[in-house]
Write a structure and sequence with these properties.
The structure holds three protein chains of three kinds. By secondary structure, chain A is an alpha/beta fold. Helices cover about 35% and strands about 25% of the residues of chain A. Chain A has a six-stranded mixed sheet, sandwiched between helices. The longest helix of chain A has 14 residues. Chain C has a domain of about 210 residues. In chain C, α1 packs across α9, α2 packs parallel to α4 and α10 runs antiparallel to α11. The termini of chain C are far apart. The chains are: A alpha/beta, B mainly alpha, C mainly alpha. Chains in contact: A-B, B-C. At the B-C interface, α4, α5, α9 and α11 of B face α4, α9 and α11 of C.
Chain lengths: ~250, ~325, ~300
Amino acid sequence: MNLLNVSNLVKRYGGLLATDHFNMTVDIGETHAIIGPNGAGKSTLIGQLSGELRSNEGSIIFDGKDITREKNYRRARMGLARSYQITSLFNEFSALQNVMLAAQAQAGHCFRFWEPMMDSRPLRERAKYVLDLVGLGSRLHACVAEMAHGEHRQLELAMALVSEPRLLLLDEPMAGMSQGESEQMMALLANLKGSYAMVLVEHDMHAVFSLADRITVLVYGKPIACDSAAAIRSNAEVRAAYLGDDN
Amino acid sequence: MKPSPRMYFASLVLVLLGLVPIYAAYLGEPFYLTLFGRMLIFAIAASSLNLILGYGGMVSFGHALYFGIGSYVVGILASHGLLNGWMHLTATVACCAIVAVLTGLVALRTNGIAFIMITLAFSQMFYFLFVSLKQYGGDDGLSIGGRSNFGSVDFNNGTVFYYVCYVTLLAVMFAGFRLVHARFGMVLRGSRSNGRRMLALGFPTLRYRLTAYVLSAMTCGVAGMLYANLTLFSSPSYLSWTMSGDLIVMVVLGGVASLMGPVLGAISLSLLEEALKAYSEHWMMILGLLIVGIVLLTKRGIYGFIQDWEQFGAASSSLSGSAVTSAKYDKQGEAQ
Amino acid sequence: MSFSLLFVQGLNGLQFGILLFLMAAGLTLVFGIMNFVNLAHGSLYMMGAFIAASLYNFTGSFWLAAIGMLPAMLLLGLAIEYVALRRLYDRDHLDQVLATFGLILFFNELARTIWGPTPYYMQVPDALSDTVDLFGIPYPAYRFVIILVGLLIAAACYVLIHRTRVGMLIRAGSSNRLMVGALGVNIKLLNSLIFALGAALAGIAGLMAGPIMSVQPGMGEPVLILTMLVIVVGGVGSIRGAFLSAIIIGMVDTFGRTALPLILRQYLERNTANAAGPALASMSIYLLMAAVLALRPQGLFPVKNG
């Protein structure tokens, strides 16, 4: 059974068809990349999968359950975590506080009014573990406002990871990163590969072809191809639409 | 934790406030109990607003509503001969909670400018309601025959009443301190910082903000109840938009999202108003301009100003307040 | 309830709604496009009324007062914007609330200082002091003119917003502020324009309301609160929403005050009706707001954000 089954997803903005009958399946442990030119509707798609945006038509089945009408905070509790293309963190908190806050979303309810959150050993251990994993082990107490862009992207990923998700929706995790930073992120994602199912939206083709099991190509909101990485690489239509012929 | 200049200043102010009755008795001027008692009560009200405004980012321009409800509960019950303090307290908290839940459910589904306007509208609605209640004074207000009866704690004794207000303020501040660092408080602060991300992380933020709103309302109601006891009067003006505006000024003047801020703000605004009134009959013009000036020139109010000054002087790396707390907490955790 | 009474109250409701629309049109643009909470809008209304009243009493001519008031209000609006408010566009709503709250205090006291605390008398112009005949029912000419002028201005607003380039920029700015700036439009100029327009409309509202409502310090805030009600019910940023919502609220408020006590007296015991009547009447529009928002939190005509 697929972990994620998206069928006939449609999203309209007035007269504009942002998502045009999109289909996709993701298996457990699979890394499924989505590529396509700018304006293809990749972020809109991630928004619909995470629940921030309402689709007009179609269905999204996650782990056997129909989540098409579920709000995004419910999907997060069900194991669907996302990271943002444009960093979206808690700027006045430290890295550790950010991740601990993210962690406590999964710890039942938070109607606790007395014990300081920072005193919670399980939250802290979990957060430190994840921050170590993404390479921010030495920057626990750095305030987000003072961190570098690359560190922000690492923290973005940590926020998604800490909830022990079943499926990660990663919206351009390497956006704006330098060569060195990108390679670090790639190594990190390679590490996570297999343990988590991932939907990876990326422009960095080097990363996509080395990480993805399958690739779906999106053009003007419509999926024009879905195949293994090697097959997509040599697909003529895809090359014409996106990859270019000098590869 | 090594005490900072900020903490020294805060402690000093609180200690001085605690010594007011002694000073008043020494001078034989019970007036000071009223003057500073008033400041304490407004400090409680401003602190309650600070929870949702400073920490929660919900700019409510209608918080005077709960202040007024608290005062009218006392007034109305007293006018029917019911002077039992515990009844007053229970009724105040209950009424404020009910109104807060009902108005909060409508208002909190909006945000930004709409939220400001809706909270204002609701407080206006109740303002007109109380104005139209002729049997309870209407526009002229309602005189209250006697103070709430709490048995052995005699509200009629000025000094006792002052210390009740003082202890209530300290309790509210301490409860606030625990709350904003607890899980609930972190969710609230996260919602202010990045509401969208909180939802994406799995927090149903509406119920947390509503809870904070209700807690804030109940606390403000208690302040209103104390105020009715202090002035022995209840009036629709306690619910006016100017009162709501004054509460916001107190919170911002003192410094949002700090526990001492509202207290400093309440004291500052009261003293400022007294000083300006003595100086000119057109004191409102000056106050208005001062408020505009303060907003244009400062970023975080008096308390924030002190905090900036203190960090500017700090030799070590420029960690912001929260990150410093993070490091300190972590060190404590590791020491266990 | 006779038909003529119904008719007259209906027109009164319409007239009140028109005044609210004039206030709401400018303010909803400021809220929606500039994302700026301007609580001092009521002060502009008040200043418009005072300036017009002063000019009227000075020159004896209503038309001169109207003509003189407009540029004065435009100047005042631009001055306030330039000196105080311009710096606040990028700040928190909280800072904007505070600063404009300070301006309210300032202007109320300023008016009290210049014109005194008691209501300033402004006469209905002689030419309009009679009644007009509408379907055989007499209705005050002045109020009728308010309705006509208001509808004219509403039409002009419609043309401006939906048929001109500036209007297109305003509408675009309403749903995506940053994009308009990114397209190279002079945002500062657009902002000043919107603010000045709002000030002018508020001034006109003040001018027209002068003879029928009392001109006094603090007159702006009750109207401001009603205006904000209109905007919230209509949808922040939507002129169309402001228009419909203003008419609805004007009607509900007017009928609430006149009809509700009568209806209650029919069904309830006298004392209860006399007590509940005025209370419910003044609360009626707030209850309406709560009902609308419970069903549609974004208002009746929300501007879709891009």
